[in-house]
Fold each of these.
Amino acid sequence: HPDAPADAALHGDPAKMQISDEVAIRIAGMNKWYGSFHVLRDIDLTVHRGERIVICGPSGSGKSTLIRCINRLEEHQSGDIIVDGTELNSDLKNVDKIRSEVGMCFQHFNLFPHLTILENCTLAPIWVRKTPRKEAEETAMHFLRKVKIPEQADKYPGQLSGGQQQRVAIARSLCMRPRIMLFDEPTSALDPEMIKEVLDTMIELAEEGMTMLCVTHEMGFAQAVANRVIFMDQGQIVEQNEPHEFFRNPRSERTKLFLSQIL
Ligand code: ADP
Ligand code: MG
């Protein structure tokens, strides 16, 4: 399956895949501890608008923690995280502002099981954004068509396949009109035949210019869609490069070892 999305992306319109000079996320000298465990060490990372970054690395290297720090699902202890010009700090107004611009999609889709697909997609727009119901439903249907499951709108999550549920989770995020999307292993809980449909949805988002940070081990996706691949190990960014060079000429021994294990 890694080849199929690659083709789709390579045939995308390059003009749509431009990266701007504008900074979407700036992380500088950031550290995080869980108790006495130093989980993220001196993280420096600047993400420009329109970038599509794939983060990979061994299990336990801090990938999820890094992603979760960006919308304050985890709190960092030192250094700066600035999203869209807003500093992530103890000011809850800033946290809210950043969360409203950042969408997130996890390995487990976290849909509300007792709500229909449509209701899952309209809940936050109606209650958080105060969007009128009719407008929220129109927006939800727009994004459900985009992820190619509008006909599932009145079903419940349990009636959908894993791949369909993950696409609902993506649509639900998009309904909040995020400027940045974070993905944490969105395909790793899916059966192989469903991985492609989710990756295709992500490729489409990338082609439309969405700024994306994706933790994934789908290296076909990384090669096709990412403009930058970041390798993490033991809480540090060990190496980063554009995908072709990253895969062809990994510089550190740790990266080489990792790639030899997954490719
Ligand atoms: P990855 O996503 O790369 O697998 P994580 O960010 O999930 O890594 O975890 C990094 C390290 O932090 C691991 O050693 C993990 O056990 C530890 N860790 C993750 N979450 C917590 C937590 N809430 N409390 C304590 N340790 C944690
Ligand atoms: Mg993880």
Note: The longest strand covers residues 23-34.
Amino acid sequence: QAKQERRGSFRFFEPAMDQLLLDRVVLEHELRAALANHELELHYQPLVSCSSGAIEGYEALIRWHHPRRGMVMPIDFIPLAEQTGLIVPIGEWAIRTACIEASKWPARQSIAVNVSPLQFRQSNLPEMVAEALLESGLPADRLEIEITEGVLISDTSDAILTLSALRAQGVRVSLDDFGTGYSSLSYLSSFAVDKIKIDRSFVRPLGQSEGAGLLVRTIIELGHHLGLTVVAEGVETPQQLAMIQGKGCDQVQGYLLGRPDRMEARPAVTGASPRGRADRKPELEATR
Ligand code: C2E
Ligand code: MG
Ligand code: MG
Ligand code: MG
């Protein structure tokens, strides 16, 4: 009898579990309020041309300034937002805000925004994106939507419809974290995307093994054969950069080239645009 009782109430009296559940409920409640309280912010990380060293655009990366916890990174709240559906209003805020902020940048710079699976499955995503472009005045060809293979796994036909509705407007689509999902190659041939972003797990071992270099070279060639732009993520060292450049990659992104930051927090450089952004990365020059 006692055992039965304990089993029935296990979930509610096991201290660790109880705390976990409470944390989650509190965090969800706080996340719900975060949008209204203006606690969310976009940081921007440069995407740099491999051949010219010019900053060709930025990726918007969300941050949550929590009143007590300080800065909360996406890994600690995007999964919860996805599970609770909060990602829909948060993701919409990210797209609208990124378009408005990017509309003030030089015309050659684009903005990439991450869209999570649940958000991508909202049937009105293409209309919402069209609205965000219209409101901000940002030309469609300066907006990139980053999706992961997770977006393409379920509802394949709906995903194709959404992709083509986005691209029909002139918006470009990137496949993020390329190589980490399932059946990457079959997705590439059946889904219309413009760009692949080689996951940083492929970039990290560059220079440590010959196989790592071969793999990255093969992914770049595959992308180019399919007419896609290829980006390498997570470039942290000059050695990695030199190897990536040597393999004909189009763009690089990583701490070596620039960390995600507020635009206005970027150091002013003489001769740069009024907003104080350096257009060329000295690290890139140094390695050529
Ligand atoms: P992601 O889209 O693959 O973004 C790249 C992540 O790698 C970012 O982490 C970035 O700060 C980090 N990174 C960039 N360069 C380097 C490097 O050289 N070394 C290392 N170790 N890391 C580097 P972050 O900002 O923590 O974002 C993590 C993920 O959260 C993103 O991965 C993306 O999937 C998601 N995310 C961020 N913002 C949003 C958003 O607005 N909406 C949605 N749905 N997801 C977002
Ligand atoms: Mg991304
Ligand atoms: Mg990525
Ligand atoms: Mg990622």
Note: The beta strands are 40-49, 55-66, 70-72, 110-114, 143-147, 172-178, 195-198, 229-232, 251-252.
